Amino acid sequence: xxxxxxxxxxxxxxxxxxxxxxxxxxxxxxxxxxxxxxxxxxxxxxxxxxxxxxxxxxxxxxxxxxxxxxxxxxxxxxxxxxxxxxxxxxxxxxxxxxxxxxxxxxxxxxxxxxxxxxxxxxxxxxxxxxxxxxxxxxxxxxxxxxxxxxxxxxxxxxxxxxxxxxxxxxxxxxxxxxxxxxxxxxxxxxxxxxxxxxxxxxxxxxxxxxxxxxxxxxxxxxxxxxxxxxxxxxxxxxxxxxxxxxxxxxxxxxxxxxxxxxxxxxxxxxxxxxxxxxxxxxxxxxxx
Length: 288
Prior knowledge:
This protein is of the alpha/beta class.
């Protein structure tokens, strides 16, 4: 049991090195196959979804846009090839030898929806956390794989250490989304040395208690402790408390269900998921 296949939706960003570093950490743990997946968008699709270069291309020609996207794909391929070479990875398609392999895949599509579709046949998807800046992972990419793949999404912070994931914090709120994320996270949970359940008073929705979750994990011979913290003033305060507690206990992965509330509500009123996506300094595993 484990993450035998990992998809990395490739996009130019300052966080790509962190994404690849985190991907390799997981791949080495489970002897996974890594696929670097690059989309070359059509002009119409790029404009429709706000793909980098799409709006600017309105002032140019389709031919110029294709040249720019071809150059972008070449830059991503060069960076991916450098990652393969520097880490002495085997560049091949998946095989039956239970060894770590890596491959490149490139497709033209009308938009980034293909990231979510492609992700449905992988055990895990790794993307960068959107951060303010000129060259940043796209929130569109993260939300596409989170909502369209049906798979767990591992979100890499802008910088990451090489330390193996051995202490995991679970931000339990009683929700279906978090229950599903815990199920997806079991390969990591079973390999970790320490599991902590964060029970934030006032952040719960109707559902099982943190004690019941701990009992469920204990039945699988997983040692768990529960950290109780008092309430919240707003959903974003709950998100901040989850991140602060994860850092305080020294956990190097946070498990959190993605968007227990609707995306629209969180965009308007804020929410724990939005806060974590904007501020997390550690890897976060999410599913919806």
